[in-house]
Amino acid sequence: MGVEGCTKCIKYLLFVFNFIFWLAGGIILGVALWLRHDSQTTNILYLQLGDKQAPNTFYVGIYILIAVGAVMMFVGFLGCYGAIQESQCLLGTFFTCLVILFACEVAAGIWGFVNKDQIAKDVKQFYDQAFQQALMAESESNNGKAVVKTFHETLDCCGPDNTIRTFTPLWRDDLCPKKDSILETIVETSNCHRKIDELFSGKLYLIGIAAIVVAVIMIFEMILSMVLCCGIRNSSVY
C-alpha cells in the first residue's frame, strides 16, 4: 500500500528536489568541463618553462568538481527512483550517499579555501620566473619569452607590476600586446599580477556559489528522505 496524505506530498517534493539535484549535478559537470577547457586557463596552465610545468593546483579542484558533478547525477537519479518506488532500501542508500557527498563537499570546500590564494600565487611566481628569463640576454636559448608572451596575449596584460611597466619600456614592443602608442600601452594594459588574481578569483567565486546552492539542496533532501522513509515504514505497519 502506498503512502497517503502528507507523506505522499513529501514523496513528490523529494522527487522534485532530486530532479533539481540531478540538474545541478549536470550543470556542475558542464561548468567543470568548461573551466577545464577554458582557453584562458588552458593557455596558461599548459605552459612549460624549461623543465618546470605551470602549477596544476587549479586543475586538481576542477577534476574534483567533475567527479562531484557525475556522482550528483547518479545520486539524484537514485533519489528520484527511490522516492517514486517508495523503497526504504533505495532511500536509505540515497541518504548514505548524500551524507558521504556532503562530507566530501565540506572537505573540498576547506581545501579550496586553504588553497584559493596559493593557486594565484603559484601562477604569479611561475610568470615572474618566465619574465626574468625573457629579459635575460640568453633568453633565446629558452622559452621564457614565449611563456611571457602567452600570458600577455591571453590576459591582455603587460609586466608583473606598474613600476616595471613604467620604467622599462625597452621590452614592450617585443613582449606585450600591440597598442597604437606607448602611452596606450601604459594606460590601457593592466599588470599581469592583477589579471592573474582576477582570473582565478572570478572562477573560484563561481565555484563557491555553486557549492553553497548544492549544499542547501542536499540538506533539504536528507531531511525529506528520512521523513519519507519513516512514513513508508509507518504505512506498511497498517
TrEMBL record:
<keyword id="KW-1015">Disulfide bond</keyword>
<feature type="transmembrane region" description="Helical">
    <location>
        <begin position="12"/>
        <end position="35"/>
    </location>
</feature>
<feature type="disulfide bond">
    <location>
        <begin position="157"/>
        <end position="192"/>
    </location>
</feature>
<keyword id="KW-1003">Cell membrane</keyword>
<dbReference type="InterPro" id="IPR000301">
    <property type="entry name" value="Tetraspanin_animals"/>
</dbReference>
<keyword id="KW-0472">Membrane</keyword>
<dbReference type="GO" id="GO:0002250">
    <property type="term" value="P:adaptive immune response"/>
</dbReference>
<keyword id="KW-0391">Immunity</keyword>
<protein>
    <recommendedName>
        <fullName>Tetraspanin</fullName>
    </recommendedName>
</protein>
<feature type="transmembrane region" description="Helical">
    <location>
        <begin position="56"/>
        <end position="84"/>
    </location>
</feature>
<feature type="transmembrane region" description="Helical">
    <location>
        <begin position="204"/>
        <end position="228"/>
    </location>
</feature>
<dbReference type="InterPro" id="IPR018503">
    <property type="entry name" value="Tetraspanin_CS"/>
</dbReference>
<keyword id="KW-1064">Adaptive immunity</keyword>
<keyword id="KW-0446">Lipid-binding</keyword>
<feature type="disulfide bond">
    <location>
        <begin position="158"/>
        <end position="176"/>
    </location>
</feature>
<keyword id="KW-0812">Transmembrane</keyword>
<feature type="transmembrane region" description="Helical">
    <location>
        <begin position="90"/>
        <end position="114"/>
    </location>
</feature>
<dbReference type="InterPro" id="IPR008952">
    <property type="entry name" value="Tetraspanin_EC2_sf"/>
</dbReference>
<keyword id="KW-1133">Transmembrane helix</keyword>
<dbReference type="GO" id="GO:0008289">
    <property type="term" value="F:lipid binding"/>
</dbReference>
<dbReference type="InterPro" id="IPR018499">
    <property type="entry name" value="Tetraspanin/Peripherin"/>
</dbReference>
<comment type="similarity">
    <text>Belongs to the tetraspanin (TM4SF) family.</text>
</comment>
<dbReference type="GO" id="GO:0042127">
    <property type="term" value="P:regulation of cell population proliferation"/>
</dbReference>
<dbReference type="GO" id="GO:0016323">
    <property type="term" value="C:basolateral plasma membrane"/>
</dbReference>
<dbReference type="Pfam" id="PF00335">
    <property type="entry name" value="Tetraspanin"/>
</dbReference>
